[in-house]
Amino acid sequence: MSSIIYTHTDEAPLLATYSFLPIVEAFAAKAGVEIETRDISVAARILAQFGLADDALSELGALAKTPEANIVKLPNVSASIPQLKAAIKELQEQGFAVPDYPEAPATPEEKEIRAKYDKVKGSAVNPVLREGNSDRRAPASVKNYAKAHPHTNKPFAEGSKTNVATMGAHDFFSNERSVTLAQDDTLSIVLETAAGETVVLKDGLEVLAGEIVDGTKLEVAHLHAFLRNALAEAKAQDVLFSVHLKATMMKVSDPIIFGHVVKAYFADVFAQYGDQLAAAGLSANDGLGAILSGLDALADGAEIKAAFEAALAAGPRLSYVNSDKGITNLHVPSDVIVDASMPALVRNGGRLWGVDGGEDDTLAVIPDSSYAGVYQAVIDDVKKNGPLDPATIGTVPNVGLMAQAAEEYGSHDKTFEIPAAGTVRVLSANGDVLIEHDVEAGDIWRACQAKDIPVRDWVKLAVTRARASQTPAIFWLDETRAHDAELIKKVNAYLPEHDIAGLEIKILAPALATAYTLERMRKGEDTISVTGNVLRDYNTDLFPILELGTSAKMLSVVPLIAGGGLFETGAGGSAPKHVQQLVEENYLRWDSLGEFFALVPSLEKYAEQAGAPAAQVLADTLDRATGTFLNEDRSPGRKLGTTDNRGSHFYLALYWAEELANQSEDAALAAAFKPLAETLRANEDKIAAELIAVQGKPADIGGYYRPDAAKAAAVMRPSATLNEALASF
Ligand code: NAP
Ligand code: MG
User: Fold this and answer.
1) Ligand approaching nearest to the C-alpha of 639
2) Quick check: is 279 in a domain?
3) Is the pLDDT of residue 194 over 90?
4) Residue 315 belongs to what domain range?
């Protein structure tokens, strides 16, 4: 039987679920729509590894490969090691018999435990569920709202010195080699060291005929030369030095690159004290913050700290993440995430914050040049033509390749910090060399895959979206890049499978695609960006932030290749800062628009799957209710004393009930919802007041990774009047 699976995840979206899901369940029940939940939070995934909870993620992964799938997927935590350890500790404190995280597994038992935890670590959910490509756009109601209520994109000052610095050579972009496999194969990745040793980096890598496989390296000696230049340039230009990486998604490569930036900035300190720091287990990869806080335990700690401070005073001025708290751009590898930080910089007139909280131009260092040109193109455009005006600019939906872990550059299992100089080879099962690179110790080498069926589906989705919205579609592919050249062959092979008469479909390298898209955008014209997986992630922050001021209000559909639907909620993450605010002052500023948007196509899918017209009525009325919600400006404010997440859910329920009561497609549903609509309307002020009255005091949810269900429900459902109205409905 069909049902909608609503996921329990982590942090702010999980808290929001405690308030929103009871409303959805009450509404769905009246229309006979089945809703089930599955817990795929970090905590539940840890418990599942040790047989203490159902393995919901595997279950959903299997479901995603069937036409029955109808999954509403909220953002979840991609756990870093410190987060994983914190979750383990919390579960242990709650009485669950989960083992400690083995730092250096030695025994077979420890290795097995470590392997289990590795399955929970990092980006472990999305690659399992994303059995389809990505269709993300701002719904028309959101775009219209943004046009009517534009946020400010600040102008760049005359003579702004803000620019991007990127390697352009000896990096992942330049060194890439790519092959399309003629037949199914099992590959291995092997390092032959200069000393004659053979190190198997990876084996048993199953690949299919038609699959694209790449290998590339970032040469660390050149990275250091590049960083020295960039530091000198920032100093000479007297601008802030900032580095922009994606240490969360690219969880092997980017913390290492970040560590090199820390070592380059503090070159003298590391030359003098590097051995002591290493001996104390203080790694540049963890950031300046972790090093400084670890110094207290060292005999020479004060001296080393003084050396860091002297270097900060003498070096190029650093950009700060939080000037008040003294947190620099080099403090935490995951604090500055390129896809969020660069659009924020553009919105702010090219300025970041310095040590004193003052704003200044910056040299934005994005070491690898694969996508750095996109941001330089935006900066060039805004410098020349002024800020983009949200009241008039066109929109840029995205169709992104991601199915079956396509282009998962972040995958930790195929990225390596090379231990010794030699040659890395990708070998087919019969020993043929598919890809080969000479490497030095410390170089970062990575492989990546994209299967044929997902690419073909992606081309189809691009044409479908271009046709449905009568919008030009641009494939952001660079024929001079090895991987893209292989993809372009496939795009050219698969486009003729579709009717593309009258559609504008082009292939442009990313920087050119950016310039072309911006030119159209300024004329109020829309342009679909059809991209690989990384640009999918970057563009669905960049353009929404410039157009709407946020990426949280996006419709994010994953049409599954097998015919089912995966409906992601928004383009953002799980907003940890929001949880902090809730716990401190019982205010949740999470905006559930993403959930509202996701639920509409999910209900439509249900109507089709179950042959249930009432579900279609729920979908249509929810869509209209969301329009009213936007017009009435019921999204949560940022501050205490305004409507927060819970209040926003109440208004959505009110508008949705009224739409249902007033529609004429389904008279029984209209009659059923009439009393609820009347009760909610009659008690509007009372409910709103009850929801605001609880704000301002700390809230106890009984856990972070695994909140206490009863406590979280009590905090998130504080209006007795609303609860009573739903219960008696
Ligand atoms: P983030 O969760 O998107 O948060 C960045 C900021 O975006 C938030 O602090 C908030 O700004 C704003 N934001 C995002 N969604 C919002 C919403 N629905 N309503 C209101 N504001 C919203 O990004 P992050 O801090 O880089 O990542 C946090 C966690 O989410 C990480 O564990 C990451 O791995 C995970 N993540 C998951 C997914 C996914 O599952 N699809 C995607 C991305 C990230 P203000 O604080 O200014 O209000
Ligand atoms: Mg992103």
Assistant:
1) 1
2) yes
3) yes
4) 163-172+219-385
